[in-house]
Amino acid sequence: QNNMVFSFSQYEASGTASRLGIRNKADATIRSHLMELDNFLKGAMDSWNAYCSRKGMRGGFMVTSGYRCPQLNSNIGGSAKKSAHMSGYADDTVPINGNHQEYFKWALEFAKSGVRFDQIIVEGAKGTHWVHFGYKNGSGSQRMQTMSYNGSNYSMISAGTPTYRNENDNL
Question: What is the pTM (predicted TM-score) of this model?
């Protein structure tokens, strides 16, 4: 955990879980997934910081929603049983500098940079904006999907060539 961009406690933090008394703690398997996600986020953070440096902006981003136990995911209206948040492979992030327009623009460029991922979604709902990074889906696949979400509808921006954990995994 010492070399991680974000700590397990940052991935597990949830105001909703605290308010509702939900224990949102990742087990050892999910923590190993969070470490994979975190390694992916190291590259994302480096890329975002370089982008910000070129634009004369402050870099960095923070996790607003990381790991979600099934009870928490259900309470916040997450994607049913398929949410990669529940397997420790996804998080939602916001730029520290507050410039969501540039963050969205960068995220779409980052998705085209050759990195492997499951989903990158630029999202906005109820006046809030964030980028969802899904490193893998719950079965370990990487579908290379880039989407936008406006609070009610998802729109596909691009679908890359998916990679699968094994030949029998076609989700």
Answer: 0.88
Tens digits of per-residue pLDDT, 26-75? 999 999 999 999 999 999 999 999 999 999 999 999 999 999 999 999 88
Q: Residue 41, CB half-sphere, CA atoms under 13 Å: how many?
A: 28
pLDDT at site 1: 56
Q: Please give the structure tokens belonging to residue 158.
A: 């691009």
Burial annotation 46-73 (CB, 10 A radius, 16+ → b, else e): ebbeebbeeeebebebebebbbbbeebb
pLDDT at 169 (0 to 100): 38
Percent of the chain with pLDDT over 70: 89
Output the CA–CA distances (angstroms, integers) from residue 152 to 26, 32, 86, 104, in the order listed.
29, 32, 21, 18
In angstroms, rounded to a whole number, what is the distance separating the alpha carbons of residues 155 and 121?
9
Tell the residue number behind the tokens 């899904």, with chain if given.
134
State the CB neighbour count (10 A cutoff) for residue 86.
22
Are 111 and 139 spatial neighbours (Cβ–Cβ below 8 Å)?
no
